[in-house]
Design a protein that fits this description.
The chain is an alpha/beta fold. The chain is built from eight helices and ten strands. The longest helix has 14 residues.
Length: about 230
């Protein structure tokens, strides 16, 4: 699937979706346990794949500046509107492919949150993105990242095609109105290896949930909190 097709599909998804208003409880636990720095009101954060901005808005309650990026044009436009409507003035919204972070004008930050979107690129690209996360963090900066775990019930569906390296073009039965969508699934050990090249891992946890955007099939997810080396 081309870059433009990905952007269009996710834009269509956001145009048709109601606003999500509440941050994931697992994210809230990790954020408040690991990411409250001294002088937190002077700190900055970056949310990659911000979607409707639920994580970004939560972080903006205590951080000085929050940069919220997303691949989909519709998500970016919605985020800008939500920020205005909610009176949030410390949220900077930008359209960005996570693979182009190093060439962006986003400054160094103290916290990066990547919530699932790392699984929409292949493992080689993911390794480069995680390196760019380390490059964009101040000394002692934190990363909170979510990986989609191995899930045989999804990848065994009729119509799912293996692309190699843990990447699959998913069956329409799994993802509904996003034909051609590719996702990369990780074992916990594979996710850990990717992150610990550039970070010291503070915490690894997991949970069972349902595969977005359709939500009909159960998947496992891994959450890693890490500190820049």
């Amino acid at each position: 699937m081309s870059v433009n097709e990905y952007s269009k599909n996710w834009s269509d998804f956001y145009f048709e979706s109601r606003r999500q208003r509440h941050a994931d409880l697992h994210f809230l636990h990790l954020f408040y346990r690991y990411s409250l720095f001294p002088n937190v009101d002077k700190k900055s954060a970056l949310v990659v794949g911000a979607g409707d901005g639920v994580e970004a808005f939560e972080i903006a309650r205590s951080f000085k500046n929050v940069y919220a990026t997303d691949y989909a044009i519709a998500s970016v436009e919605r985020l800008k509107k939500f920020a205005v409507n909610d009176g949030v003035k410390n949220l900077i919204v930008q359209q960005l492919d996570q693979r182009n972070l190093d060439s962006s004008l986003i400054p160094l930050v103290d916290l990066i949150v990547s919530w699932s979107v790392i699984s929409y690129i292949n493992q080689k690209e993911a390794a480069n993105v995680i390196k760019s996360f380390a490059n964009h963090l101040n000394p002692g900066g934190k990363l909170i990242i979510l990986f989609e775990g191995d899930e045989s019930s999804v990848i065994s569906l009729r119509g799912t095609v293996s692309k190699g390296g843990g990447t699959y073009q998913l069956s329409d039965a799994a993802i509904g109105n996003m034909p051609g969508l590719e996702m990369t699934f990780y074992s916990q050990e594979a996710a850990k290896r990717l992150v610990e090249r550039y970070f010291m891992i503070n915490s690894i946890s997991s949970r069972d949930t349902f595969l977005p955007p359709k939500g009909d099939y159960r998947v496992n997810q891994y959450f890693i909190v890490a500190t820049k080396k």
